[in-house]
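Page 42, continued from yesterday. The earlier attempt failed because a stray header line got pasted into the input along with the sequence. Redoing it now with the clean sequence only.
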Amino acid sequence: MIKYPAILNVKNDKIPYITDSSFEKYKSNLLENGDLIFADAAEDETVGKAVEVNGLTEENLVAGLHTIVARSKDKKAEFFLGYYINSNTYHRQLLRLIQGSKVSSISKGNLQKTLVSFPKDFEEQQKIGSFFKQLDYTIALHQRKLDLLKEQKKGFLQKMFPKNGAKFPELRFEGFTDDWEERKLGDHAKYRRGSFPQPYGNKEWYDGEGAMPFVQVVDVTNNLTLVENTKQKISKLAQSKSVFVPKGKVVVTLQGSIGRVAITQYDSFVDRTLLIFEDYEKETDERFWAYTVQKKFEIEKLKAPGGTIKTITKEALSSFDVHFPKFEEQQKIGSFFKKLDDTIALHQSKLDLLKEQKKGFLQKMFI
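This time it went through. Structure tokens are written below.
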């Protein structure tokens, strides 16, 4: 049985086959290849998203609650309608027909009011359907490669840093055999919180001539980087009341999305909800340190006090136990993960480009 959440969450327009052993009562409603299954409810404007049934052989498939089934009166090329229905060209018709506030819905009657455009030439339909199917295959292939790289990185992070109680990691570069040193974070690193003049809403603190990037929690990604453009720019007037951070420094979020770490790619000023590592007692590789902090926060943020918005205080950080090897080994580890991160970023960029290309083709190839 196909239910509406499966339609809303379907990837690359493939149908997740959800079977139900009690299909006897649904015999009159069995689906056929070419049928369109619409989700008639959603919490946003994705209501009306559909999947096309294809490749159906021996399966007994029916549509479940909050779905609407449409069947073409005449034969259409495989995949053509599935992609057309999910294009912006068609979806714009649905927007004025959607009802509801918290949960949006569309009725069967309103769906019947929409118009479907298609080339009369069956071969052209085939070419369009085949084109998008191949594009989805390429997108899925890149997604699998990206997922595999991320899993590999996760495995290396587990094996190249000591587990609890261990004096060295499971996996090391050749030539390094010494135990890793264990210290309190407060004894190894010098750090401070950012700042910003109050009240936050004062327009004088933002933008204008000489404004610079102002880093807040929302500007720290999950990939050890800041966003390309910060949400806010800090005015020249406010800069003397904030904390300047040159590029190449490690920062970590202390509130909200706790434990997001970045190595700053550009000069900026930083908000009080972030901590800046300014210096270290011993020579330390920044990328190695960034991963050390990230891994430590994965554990510590679960203990953080607070409700919806949790906070880790600057003072609590000083008691965190951290492990690190000699500087040369830190560099090797940092360089290794830098290359891995660059490869992941390259694959992510290719995947994003393919998705954008598909979006563009969906706009230009349907009317």
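Notes: The mean pLDDT is 87.
Reminder to self: strip header lines before submitting.
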